[in-house]
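User: Could you walk me through two proteins back to back? I'd like the raw sequence and the structure tokens for each, with a short line separating them so I can tell where one ends and the next begins.

Assistant: Of course. Protein one, sequence then structure:
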Amino acid sequence: MMVDGAQLWTLNQRLLSVVMDACSGELAELGLETKEFFVLAEVAASPYPAEIAAALMLPKASVTVYVRNLVAKGFIRRQIDDKDLRRHRLILTAEGKEARERALSALAAEYDRRLARVTPRDRTELQRILQEMLKSPE
């Protein structure tokens, strides 16, 4: 039986949405909206707003709004980049690191609850498959 790629993508997206919805209460307690969380989680890997927009496939204008909100909440701060004084680098504050870690823990716990339904062997295979799918095409 052939499995349709679009159906798999839809199932994966639905799973991610269900997990995020289940964690929305914890995110709200931290003062985070869902997309703000994604931006907050990306700051360490992509410290410039344009990089965050590209990594998360969000419009730059939206990222600007989320960054402003996160700065106002004290989760991140802007710092002029020493290498290019025209750019602002984003840095997680201590509060931002704590909020990110608590949110990631909530997401991991919810995902683990769902993953518990899958055998250890299938988990290993799922990890292998996802890693293979993430490889750059040659």
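----
Protein two, same layout:
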Amino acid sequence: MRRRTVTAGNLEEILQVTAPAQAPEQAAAPPAAAAPAPPREDHGLRTEFEFELPRGYVDEAGTVHRHGAMRLATARDELRPQIDLRVKENPAYLSVVLLSQVITRIGTITDVHVGVVERMYATDVAFLQDFYRRVNSEGHTRAAVTCPHCEGGFEVDLSGGRLGES
């Protein structure tokens, strides 16, 4: 097997070359003649999870955005940052790049990119890293906790709400 060195500059080219080829009838059909997509079936798989940031992202206008959504990561999401030059120079940057790929929105911001994650407070980034791990490893956002007073066990949903709220 031949090894190939990949840089950020030629990533899109490689992704296009390695993408599955379209069938000839699909390639020849004009987009306007395409049939409407069939309705999606609900298979019970939850792919997007809501969250509420502890502090909130403050945009350039000074607006605080606290509610957002994160989608499940794909293998491509986890592999892409490995070839990012910023990650190669500083491995700690991996989580910033990875989070920017899987966060679908924060408040009214739908274009979540590396610059947005870089400007978040450290407590929010730590929250999102833990949230990412829970969603992608465990498949849910619940955590088992124990009451320090009565030592009773129960679950809390980490995806939203302030501490002490039910």
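DSSP finds seven helices and five strands in the chain.

Let me know if you want the two compared in more detail.
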